[in-house]
Specification:
43% helix; three-stranded antiparallel β-sheet; alpha/beta; 304 residues
Amino acid sequence: MSYAETFKKEYKDLIGRCFFSTWRKLERGLPPRALFSLSKPFFFSRAVANCAFRKRAYATPRPDFLRVPDPARTELRQRMSDYLNHVLEFFPDRLSGEKWIQNCRVEGLEHFQSAARKKRPAILAFSHFGPFFLLRFWLRAHGIPAATLLGGDPEGRGPLMRLKDTFSPFPGVPIAFYSDQLRAADEFIAGGNPLLIPIDAPGHKQIIVPFSTGWTFQMAAGAVRLAIRHHAALIPCTIVDEGRWHFSIKLGEPVPQELLLSKNDWLPAGKHLKDQMVPIFRARPEQCRPDFIRCLKQNAECPS
């Protein structure tokens, strides 16, 4: 690494630590509404500057019911929301407190609790929709010690990310597993722990699921395969940004156990996950992320 690259990395880390310290101090003294109002102008300016020099993410073709009327405005608002929502990662240890926990409601919690009573592990299948990166933070705040299966390399987690991890609830439970840590993730599930797995991540094994008239969805098979292997409850999980740091998490109906018996036929389970999520996508198309949209393929012969 060159001197310039080293300097840039260290400077970025220093700025990140300053942000981390500043927002933790502000959060301690302000209610969520006041902190949001204080943060919004700064992140709005940053979003405007960022969108001015970025390729339009909403240019990717999508089904009619997922289109938005003003893509440029939608992208700007999404980017600003992302910047604001990432602030919550600076104080994950406080989200379970009285002033924060009411900002995120969880529907369908009984599905996870039912699996826990039966001592079954749970696979929480999610997509790149809404502020998906906050799922494990809010789930942990609600008492669910979930970890996330991620792509990439654990070495890519910089000092700031590792600093955030030290403040996460359930300190003895891993935060995330990466593509080269699948054995550890396997052991985590076998121990009865809940694992968040994306269904729209690139992977070698895919399920081609009918999505809507003329469209299919290339679903990563990892969540279904692991649920079958571990006899785990496979629960669709979606988070919606309701604005001003208010969220809702939907734990949908688990995939019926009879659809998780075959090690070779994953399509019925994939269809169930899709059917549970599509109504939420349809209601909030502006929160569909490019990684999710890229998994949708046009196919004139595909039935609805």
